[in-house]
Design brief:
The protein has helices spanning 19-30, 48-58, 101-106, 130-143, 192-199, 247-251; strands at residues 6-11, 35-40, 67-71, 82-87, 90-95, 111-114, 167-168, 172-180, 186-191, 204-208, 211-213, 228-232, 237-242, 258-263. By secondary structure, it is α+β, with helices and mostly antiparallel strands. The chain folds into 2 domains: 6-151, S-adenosyl-l-methionine hydroxide adenosyltransferase, N-terminal (Rossmann fold), CATH 3.40.50.10790; 167-263, Bacterial fluorinating enzyme like (Elongation Factor Tu (Ef-tu), domain 3). It is elongated.
Length: 265
C-alpha cells in the first residue's frame, strides 16, 4: 500500500465517555500506521436510520480504499451478526442491522462476510461493547491488508432498512424530513431531479407543519432575515431552512414530518 490506511468512524457513542477513544486504541494496537478520521459520534442513540443517512451523505468523499467502521447498534449482545463488506471502492465493518442500507442502494455490495474468525477479534468479547472487541479489531486487521474473506464465512443478503420513499403524483410530491442538522435545517428525501421534473420552473408551494413555503433559492444568503425558505443543500436534496435560526424549532418539525409539494394556483 503506497499510502497509510484510512479508517473512518461513525457511531452513536458520543465523545463524553471513553468508548470512541478505547476503540481507537484497539485499532492502533493492531495497525499502528492507520489514520483515524471521525465522521460523527453524535448519531442519536440507537438511531440506525440516522446513522444510515449520515454515512450515505459522507462516504463517497473519502479516498478509495477507506475502511468505514460504523457502530450504531441497538442490538448489541443479541444474535444479530457483525459483517464486513466490500462495496464499490470501500470496505465497511458494521452490525448487520441496516445501517449500511443507503450505501447498498447506491452501490450493491460485492462481498459480505460474517465476522466469525476469532483471531481477528479480541480474545474475549463483551456483550455490551462489541465495538471495542469485535468491530474495531476487524476494521484494523483489514487496514493491515488482511483479506475480507479471512474475517469469516460469506454472509448472504444483509439486512435492509425500510427507508422512507417519495410518493410522486401528477399534482404533488409527498416526502418527509429525513434529517435535522445541528443548525435546525430540515433535510428532506425529495431529490433535485424529482423536484425539477415536477416543477418544470412553474411556481410551487411546499407545505410543512402547517406552513407554506413559496421561495426556493440557491444560497442561504439570499433569504431575508427570519424567512423560512427552501433550497437544495450539499446532498442535492430539498432542504427547508430559516435564515439565522432553526427551522426545526420554528416549525416544530422533526425527522419523519411530512413535506408536501404542490403547484401554486
Amino acid at each position: 500500500m503506497g499510502h497509510r490506511p484510512l479508517i473512518a468512524l461513525l457511531t452513536d457513542f458520543g465523545t463524553r465517555d471513553h468508548y470512541v477513544g478505547t476503540m481507537k486504541g484497539v485499532m492502533l494496537g493492531v495497525c499502528p500506521d492507520a489514520t483515524l478520521v471521525d465522521i460523527s459520534h453524535d448519531i442519536p442513540p440507537h438511531d440506525v436510520l440516522a446513522g444510515a443517512f449520515e454515512l450515505a451523505a459522507s462516504h463517497r468523499y473519502f479516498p478509495k480504499g477507506t475502511i468505514f467502521l460504523v457502530v450504531v447498534d441497538p442490538g448489541v449482545g443479541s444474535t444479530r451478526r457483525g459483517i464486513a463488506v466490500e462495496c464499490g471502492d470501500y470496505l465497511f465493518v458494521a452490525p448487520d442491522n441496516g445501517v449500511l442500507s443507503l450505501v447498498f442502494e447506491e452501490t450493491p455490495p460485492h462481498r459480505v462476510v460474517e465476522l466469525g474468525e476469532p483471531r481477528y477479534a479480541r480474545p474475549s468479547i463483551s456483550k455490551t461493547f462489541e465495538g471495542r472487541d469485535r468491530f474495531a479489531p476487524a476494521a484494523a486487521w483489514l487496514a493491515t491488508g488482511v483479506e475480507l474473506s479471512a474475517l469469516g464465512k460469506p454472509a448472504g443478503q444483509p439486512v435492509m432498512l425500510d427507508v422512507p420513499r417519495l410518493s410522486v403524483a401528477s399534482g404533488s410530491i409527498d416526502g418527509q424530513v429525513v434529517r435535522v442538522d445541528r443548525f435546525g435545517n430540515l433535510e428532506t428525501n425529495i431529490d433535485r431531479r424529482t423536484f425539477a421534473g415536477f416543477a418544470c420552473d412553474a411556481p410551487v408551494v411546499i407545505q410543512i407543519a402547517g406552513r407554506d413555503i413559496t421561495r426556493v433559492i440557491s444560497t442561504y444568503a439570499e433569504a431575508a432575515p427570519g424567512e423560512l425558505f427552501a433550497l437544495f443543500g450539499s446532498s442535492d436534496h430539498l432542504e427547508l431552512a430559516l435564515n439565522g435560526a432553526s427551522a426545526a424549532a420554528f416549525t416544530g418539525a422533526t425527522r419523519g414530518s411530512a413535506v408536501h409539494v404542490g403547484r401554486r394556483a
